Amino acid sequence: MIEVHDLIKTFGPLTALDRLSFSVLPGRVTGFLGPNGAGKTTTMRVILGLDDPTSGSALVAGRRYRDIVWPLHEVGSLLDANAAHPGRSAEDHLLSLALSNGIGRRRVRSMLELTGLAPVAAKRLRTFSLGMKQRLGIAAALLGDPPVLVFDEPVNGLDPEGVLWIRELFKALAAEGRTVFVSSHLMSEMALTADHLVIIGRGRLLVDMTTDSFVSTNARTDVLVRSPRAGELAELLTARGAGVRAEAADALGVTGLSAAEIGELAAGRGIALHELVNRRASLEQAYLDITGTTVEYRSGLPAQGEGQQ
Amino acid sequence: MSASTPSPRAAAPSLSAWVGGLLASEWTKFRSLRSTYWALLIAAVTAVGGSAALAGPSGRQGSAFDPLASIFVGWLEYPVLAVGILGVMTITSEHSTGQIRTTFAAVPQRLAVLGAKTAVLGAVVLVLGELLAFGSFFLSQALVSGGPGLSLSGAGVLRGVLAGGFTLFVIAVTGFALGVIVRHTAGAVAVLPAVVYMPLLFLALPAPWDNRVGKFTLLMAAYQATSLHPQAGLLSPAWSLVVLVAWPVTLLLIGCILVTHRDA
Lengths: 309, 264
Description:
The complex is a heterodimer of chains A (309) and B (264).
Chain A: E1 2-11, E2 14-24, E3 28-33, H1 40-47, E4 55-60, E5 75-78, H2 90-100, H3 105-114, H4 130-142, E6 148-152, H5 160-175, E7 179-184, H6 187-193, E8 196-201, E9 204-210, H7 211-218, E10 221-226, H8 230-239, E11 243-248, E12 251-255, H9 259-269, E13 275-280, H10 283-299
Parallel strand pairs in A: 3-7, 3-8, 5-6, 6-7
Antiparallel strand pairs in A: 1-2, 1-4, 8-9, 10-12, 10-13, 11-12
Helix pairs in contact in A: 2-3, 3-4
Chain B: H1 15-31, H2 34-55, H3 69-73, H4 78-97, H5 99-106, H6 110-143, H7 157-182, H8 185-196, H9 199-202, H10 209-214, H11 218-225, H12 237-261
Helix pairs in contact in B: 1-6, 2-4, 2-6, 4-5, 4-7, 4-8, 6-7, 7-8, 7-12, 11-12
């Protein structure tokens, strides 16, 4: 379990995290979403004790990360797949991490097997592709068999087979009762993997709910209607209590009435319809709408305004 | 899949297991990079080669000739830079590659990481330094057939030879501490010679200020500590050893303060 409480992190005049609070619970995959610069990586760095928060706290299993002795047994993490010395072999890299936490060479070998890196264990990391480094980072995160896992954009650089593998891995880890906290900027990816979503924008919490309820609350549905007599139809629909938005000279977005009701209504008045389509806004769109609000809100401020808190 | 269900929190390790793990980890890092071996090889070749050259007839010149210290004067060029840069790289290569974040995520007790790195680097360079010091001594004595013919049992000789090896250790740890402070390889490598060769600046001061300031520098302290006949205007060999130790210790303390307060 990870508890982030009232986290504030400023870099000079910039506020990266702005009173951020949320919890990540065990037994499910929690997706951590936000546009670039939203503060996802900063949050994870604070959780892992790499950055000090300006104020507030981040606790893992009730303790500050920096107070944990042999933390690889408690928290496995992958923040940056490139954060490894390129002159070292994969096996020596993992072994150095393992030994620092009292983990033996056998566990290193089995993690290399698990991630499919055993054949290249002796190769130096400068020869590794980004995808191979991601696998190595996951091997490192799993070294201590930890109950809590933190991954920053783990899908980057993976081929489709790798993406599928990692998705299944996260689900399996969560099913074993572990806390799995995964960041991404791709809503579509998280919709497939995450059971719970934490969405932030500009360092502030925007959404903290299950993926299912996020889908049902945010995936708007409406009906697109095209007709040469759109104006006339709009009046008719409004009179019946429908919400109508003109999208073009001949196109309406209608909420509150089903496609069948709209069709019947138009037929009753002899209005020809050229198109009648049920629309479901994608999750990606809902995500953009939510995060876009924060971006718009911020960009409306004068440039110096960002630093004034 | 990964192993099993999450294991309950591992019991806190004993202090010896914790320290032993840290040392084993840093030793694994140290031995698994080719640059380590290049630096040590360059230090060894230039140390022995320099001593042999200085022991030859052309090397034994000048009024300030000291039969012991002159063996180690040659060390102050290449071997010192080789081990100093090895010390710098021990930490700056982690910063430049991002490895440092992986390291600190595995061991958030940052001072312990610095301690383990210092121990591994220091132990290797100290052993190598002493081997080279004795090697250089015996080689140069063999070469100066008609010369002073020093024996290890002579007064101050053993101290001087041991101090020669110790100097390399001091410079390696000084380089490491500079790397901790500066974090960038190029920056730290640029500062290293400035710290080591500072007396060359102070030589421009009018006497007696050149010695009054210069005796506290690494170079002059190393010269005094390895001298058979220490110069009067400088510190005694014993106090020079204190100066030699004070440099890396002071820089390391500054590094310790910085590393605990910086974001990684």
